[in-house]
Structures are given as structure tokens and as C-alpha cells.
Amino acid sequence: MICSNSKESATLQPFFTLQLDIQSEKIRTVQEALEMLVARESVQGYTSKTKQEIEISRRVTLEELPPVLVLHLKRFVFEKTGGCQKLTKNIDYPVDLEISKDLLSSGVRSKVLKGQRTYRLFAVVYHHGNSATGGHYTTDVFHIGLNGWLRIDDQAVKVINQYQVLKQTAERTAYLLYYRRVDLL
């Protein structure tokens, strides 16, 4: 949504993943990254038809909540001095994620029930290595038949507990988080 001089315009953009910027030192959790995603941001350099500079702000909100929500933690940042660098800091993420009404557009805020805003984690993809052009991927996935978690690393599959899914290390940091809406389970 873009706002200028009290006029609002909205551009709907479909998404497959929500890309979350985790670069700021202030961001330590998925919830904080989601709040940062929807924070109003001032946009510089806009002028009116009469060449007057005008104040414009931009804000991202969700118009619809998908059955599966994929959160992409943006771990790779480009630095002029060092090229592409990986952010290895831990970002805490919950098993049960409630999407705040603040993330929703004003038109749907009152229509979406709490159960439709609640998601349960069912998979985590990890990136191992420091390079954006290489590395290794592993996955933890919730297996409904076992009512528990599996860690998959190429052909190696082992049962793990939920604590291991949530515990990150310098070698294994979450890259993609897959959540399923609980009202659709």
C-alpha cells in the first residue's frame, strides 16, 4: 500500500514465500521480522506533476492468508566490501505461529478469525555452508503418521524431537520455514 497526502493506493501482489529481512540487530525472532515487514516505510524521491517533492510511505500487508505459509529468512546479504555474506545469527521461530491482525490489510482484519490466523510448523529447511553459490541443505519435517519429527540429510533419515527442530547452531540455521494453517488440519 502506498500513501501520499492522505490518498491510499493498493497493489495486490501474489506471493509464494514471504521474504523476511533479518539483517537488523533488533530482529531476533520470526515475529519481529514479520512486524518489520509490515512497518510503514518512508519512500524518498517522489515528486508531484508540478515537480514538488511529496511525502510517500509504503506498507506491506496481507490481503489473504494462505493454507501453507512459507517464510524465507533472507540469510544472504550483499556487502560492497565483502560481496555476498551469510547471516548466521539465530532467529527464534515457534511451532505455533499466530499472525497478528497488524499484518492484515484493514479490509480483512475484522473478517479473519483467530483460528484462520494460527499456523503450525511442519517443515524447516536448513542451509549449511557460508556461500550463496553452494552449500548443503537438510530438512526437518513433521511426519503425521509418526506424530513426530524426522531429520532428512540426503539418504539419512532419523527421528528427532521437537526441541532439536527449534534449536539452531552455527552450522545449522533455518532458511525456510513451512507453516500450515491449523483450521485446515
TrEMBL record:
Cleaved signal peptide residues: none
Keywords for this protein: Hydrolase, Protease, Thiol protease, Ubl conjugation pathway
Molecular functions per Gene Ontology: hydrolase activity
Known EC number: 3.4.19.12
Reaction equation(s) it catalyzes: Thiol-dependent hydrolysis of ester, thioester, amide, peptide and isopeptide bonds formed by the C-terminal Gly of ubiquitin (a 76-residue protein attached to proteins as an intracellular targeting signal)
Highest taxon in the source lineage: Eukaryota
Residues of the USP domain: 1-182
Pfam families: UCH (PF00443)
Enzyme class: hydrolase
Family recorded in the similarity comment: Belongs to the peptidase C19 family. USP10 subfamily.
Protein name as annotated: ubiquitinyl hydrolase 1
Organism, scientific name: Goodea atripinnis
